[in-house]
Amino acid sequence: MKVLVTGGAGYVGSAITACLVDSGIAPVVLDDLSTGHAQRLDHVASYVGDVADAELLHRIFAEHPDICVAVHCAARKTVEESVDQPLEYYRDNVGKALQLVDGLLAHGCDRLIFSSSAAVYGNVTTSVVSEDAPVSPQTPYAASKVMFERMLDDIARASTLRALSLRYFNPVGSDPRRRIMPYSSPPLPVLDNLVAAWERGEPFAIFGTDWDTPDGTPVRDFVHLWDVARAHVAAVRWLVSAADGVAHRVVNVGSGHATTIRQLTELFAQRAGRPVRVEAQRRRPGDTRGTHAAIGRAAELFDWHPRLTLADAIDDALAWLTDPTPRRFTPDVTVP
């Protein structure tokens, strides 16, 4: 079995690609390398190009006719940038994604996993959010995710397409086996920004200290990157062999735990053995209070549960500081 991974040279995409290899599934990557890194693709079949390039997609399926599932990670993803450049976000995250689905169906690939985001929930005031909560996107980035989810829902009801939209909360960390370098292109995950500030001895910015949270700083559900990748492997297998007939499903992917940004800095200081300088700043456009995920649906459908912790993610980040050389890529056969 082969799986097409768009954006497979990016932060989440490269982890999914590696975890597929670990699980004995062959990924085929399509990435334009606008933010991804080619060195992340040395161990897989890969193509450089745009997801809306019909000729390139035809070539990929001609050379890999056994692709049966697509994982769509390619997208613009900077919240602040989306406010300034909404046209580009709707063009890439909605228009080009729609062209990709058209191409997939034309080549007989009717199983799709979409990288969505918890940003679709907006400024949630509840402590935990389930997939049944109303969506309220606050930025063009979040709105683009909602639009494409709704398109998938309509297309799946009217065709053979079966789709999953995985709403990521806040992926952090890196490959625990240290085969893939940490992500270095903006926007960086919050933990990577924290590591960079700590390493340079600069203050780490916390945006807003007047939120309705235990310590006034925003709440986040930090889920280890490798657990996110494992969720995709479980989702691929479910779509291929055990899908329940529902045309389109939405599934949260998070740790199921809430952590404030200040708590993150305190835990990081404990793991690093040195304090973190913190600088309080005003809220930015599009910032939200945050919440944490109800993850029961992923457990019910895929038998997926997070295994790694925020402390594990911090330790992964600190390990790269002491030894920045990636290890040779060999599959981890212990991954289910």
Coarse shape: globular
Number of helices: 10
| Number of separate strands | 15
Question: Poorly predicted ranges (pLDDT <50, ≥5 residues)?
Answer: none
Which strand order spans the largest sheet, edge to edge or round the barrel?
3-2-1-4-5-7-12
Sheet with most strands: 7 strands, parallel
First-residue to last-residue Cα separation:
16 Å
Helix content: 25-40%
Our Rg estimate from Cα atoms comes to 19 Å
What's the pLDDT, averaged over the residues?
Answer: 93
Order of helices and strands: EHEEHEHHEEHEEHEEEHEEHEEHH
User: What structural class is derived from the secondary structure elements?
Assistant: alpha/beta
Portion of residues in beta strands equals 15-25%
Task: Write a concise keyword list for the protein shown above.
336 residues, single chain, two-stranded parallel sheet, 7-stranded parallel sheet, alpha/beta, 38% helix
Q: Can you give a write-up of this model?
A:
Helix content is 38%, strand content 19%. By secondary structure, the protein is of the alpha/beta class. The chain contains ten helices and 15 strands. It starts with a strand and ends in a 14-residue tail after the last helix.
Short description:
The two termini are 16 Å apart. The chain has 336 residues and is of the alpha/beta class. The strands form five sheets. It has a seven-stranded parallel sheet with strand order 3-2-1-4-5-7-12, sandwiched between helices. It has a two-stranded parallel ribbon with strand order 6-15.
Produce the secondary structure layout.
Blueprint: E1 2-6, H1 11-22, E2 26-31, E3 45-48, H2 54-63, E4 67-72, H3 79-84, H4 86-106, E5 111-117, E6 128-129, H5 140-157, E7 162-168, E8 170-172, H6 190-200, E9 204-207, E10 219-220, E11 222-224, H7 225-241, E12 248-253, E13 259-260, H8 261-272, E14 278-281, E15 292-293, H9 296-302, H10 310-322
Parallel strand pairs: 1-2, 1-4, 2-3, 4-5, 5-7, 6-15, 7-12, 8-11, 9-14
Antiparallel strand pairs: 10-13
Helix pairs in contact: 1-7, 4-5, 8-10
